[in-house]
Task: structure prediction
Amino acid sequence: MYTGAEQAKNLQTLHKLTLELWPDPSKRPLLLGPDAAHQDTADSKPPFPTPRDAYVYDFFKACGEMDLPIAGATLHKYIETTTERDTNGSRLDETTARFKLFQEQVNNGWAASGSAKPAPRAWGGEVGPHNGGAPPCDHSSMRWATFADSLWYTDALGSSAQLGFETFCRQDYIGADYGLLDCATGTPLPDYWAAVLWNWMVGPTVLSASVPSDSSSNLRVYAHCTAEDNGLGGPSGVTLIALNLADEDVTVQLWKDATKPGLVHMWQLAPEDKAGPVGEGQGMNGTVRKRVFLCHFILQMIILPRWARDKHRESTQKRTRFP
Result:
């Protein structure tokens, strides 16, 4: 198995080929890498928690030394989610921690190279709930085709955006039992609708969002400026994503001063069938109100009026919209 530095050298060879084959920079393919996944034989010297982290550090240190124009630092990760994990905030945080650790090794390795250029932005190069191989498309295995998985997926989109990840490539669209579509029928599964809403409503500017420290640990929130091309006000509005992981209702007041004018659009996703979060069914409805009532195990996306954006916008960073 190649070391991180050796793989960077191979990438340099590829880069030289792209310079020859595409002399016009505007048509040249982007350089991405290393999609780190299973570098188990790499050196796991301290302070690296795993061999993969040592590999990533060495890879980007070498890339920085060779001045390779990497457009995205790609992470390859399957989370191995379960319904218990999907509805447990501390377990969802494990995905965030994995993203953060990868980003730190990218930045640290690049800084160690001495390069004056900024480190490549982190990408989720291939991320999914389960590395499931190829079970047959006959409904004999539908372990990740559940509403609960859409909670993990949406939380991963929100947390990676907060960390500054520029792109999130979901594995996979259709195939096995962890795709966005039922591979036997082509029917959209809960994760598909989460992706559609995210891509339609969530813009690339990330805002600061949090819940009070004395609030339920089962409530998670993320906020972005609204996407420009959905006909709902564009970046002058705020899209708030709220997830309730509990098996009981939670009432959320979006802001203390609810007297100012402004239209609020709301899309609420909730389990549709008696199976609850472990089922494949999902319902969606839209309401206009200033107080939001979250049913158990739900995902909500809400577009707030412009004044709310101005009041709550504390920090921003750019991210490509790609669920």
About this structure: Residues 4-187 form one domain. DSSP finds seven helices and twelve strands in the chain. Confidence is low (pLDDT under 50) at residues 40-44, 286-298, 305-323. Residues 106 and 231 are 37 Å apart (CA to CA).
